[in-house]
Automatic annotation (TrEMBL):
Protein name: Maleylpyruvate isomerase N-terminal domain-containing protein
Source domain of life: Bacteria
Pfam families assigned: MDMPI_N
Keyword field: Isomerase
């Protein structure tokens, strides 16, 4: 057994091999933790719902649980695509609005249950991969969308965390405010 946490991390990286991805040393560890814990929490609530229960109302007026799931999935997709845009060195503003559109949410809410669950899962995996592929310099970059809105990539984990925890409560599926990290409770 390793004597220190650093030795344990080094041993784990050695066992996992060169294909494993890790956060850059300068990544915003606290907000990444909030986002990853929020993802796991939301996923647990979602997995506990039957397909029929997805049609039930959420805590958001006029929106079903399907709407909440679609919004969360599309937000992760947008953030992941925007981070990739910057990481890949593409020119000009990101060619989309970084705010999830209501038309997308309405369309997403009509997806079959399996596709809706896949949207959430796939988009969160993609976003996490993009975060892990950012270098220290990448975390210092920002992205501008077609509306002129600029977001620092360093802020994306907290933006995501706040959305995840807020929407976990809105899912109306036994989420508890006491489970939300204290610093994020002003949802």
């Amino acid at each position: 057994m390793s004597d220190t946490l650093e030795e344990a991390r080094a041993a784990l990286k050695l066992r996992q091999g060169s294909g494993a991805r890790y956060d850059a040393a300068g990544a915003p560890a606290r907000s990444l933790d909030w986002a990853r814990r929020g993802t796991a929490y939301f996923a647990r609530l979602l997995n506990d719902l039957s397909d029929a229960e997805l049609d039930a109302p959420s805590a958001l007026p006029g929106q079903s649980r399907r709407h909440v799931i679609a919004r969360v999935g599309y937000q992760a997709r947008l953030l992941g695509e925007a981070i990739a845009w910057v990481r890949e060195g593409k020119e000009g503003p990101f060619p989309k609005d970084l705010t999830v559109g209501e038309d997308d949410v309405e369309l997403g809410a009509t997806l079959p249950a399996r596709a809706l669950r896949y949207l959430f899962h796939h988009s969160e995996v993609h976003l996490n991969v993009e975060w892990r592929d950012l270098t220290d310099a990448g975390w210092g970059a920002s992205v501008e969308d077609v509306t002129g809105r600029r977001i620092a990539l360093r802020d994306t984990p907290e933006i995501r965390a706040r959305a995840l925890w807020r929407h976990a409560m809105a899912l109306n599926a036994r989420g508890r405010l006491a489970d939300v990290p204290a610093a994020l409770r002003e949802l």
